[in-house]
Amino acid sequence: MNTPTTATVNISIDVPDLDAGVDFYRRVFGWQEKSRPFPQMAIVDGNNVMVCIHAKPAGSKPTPSEQTRGYSRHWTPVHLDFHVEDFAATISRAKEAGASIEQEYTKPKAVAFCSDPFGNGFCIISK
């Protein structure tokens, strides 16, 4: 029987401007930059997970066979959920930092469907 390989999980977020991407997630969620191993990549501490923010220009291709990268709002079945203590304050910071709040519900639990200024979707959920 094959034994599964233990894997470490990191998250990667593509943005068109590295400094703007790092600044957005720092302002909204308190993520702190740890290093820049390459000029177009920052490693940030996402509070309990390491996140790689990559500068990738609009129009570039993720792989030779895929469509070009764009930063208008785009849907993907994989996204980040942020469970926060202070829902209202986090929503306020997100708006101030340039996020779009697309839908917001307060019952049975506060939840907001959002996108960052680069078109990446995420949810803010009250703890």
Fold and architecture overview:
This is Putative enzyme related to lactoylglutathione lyase. Residues 7-127 form the VOC domain. One of its GO terms (molecular function) is lyase activity. By secondary structure, the protein is α/β, with parallel strands linked by helices. The protein has one domain: 2,3-Dihydroxybiphenyl 1,2-Dioxygenase, domain 1. The chain has helices at residues 18-29, 87-96, and strands at residues 11-15, 32-38, 41-45, 50-55, 80-84, 100-105, 111-115, 121-126. The chain has a four-stranded mixed sheet, with helices on one face. The chain has a four-stranded mixed sheet with strand order 5-8-7-6, covered by helices on one side. Helix 1 (18-29) runs antiparallel to helix 2 (87-96). The radius of gyration is 16 Å and the shape is globular. The relative contact order is 0.20. The mean pLDDT is 93.
What is the CATH class name? Alpha Beta
Q: Calculate Rg over CA atoms.
A: 16 Å
Strand content: 35-45%
CATH architecture descriptor text: Roll
Q: Give me the CATH superfamily.
A: 2,3-Dihydroxybiphenyl 1,2-Dioxygenase, domain 1
The CATH topology comes to 2,3-Dihydroxybiphenyl 1,2-Dioxygenase, domain 1
Number of strands: 8
Number of helices: 2
Pfam families: Glyoxalase_6
Domain VOC: 7-127
InterPro entries: Glyas_Bleomycin-R_OHBP_Dase, Glyoxalase_6, VOC_core
GO molecular function: lyase activity
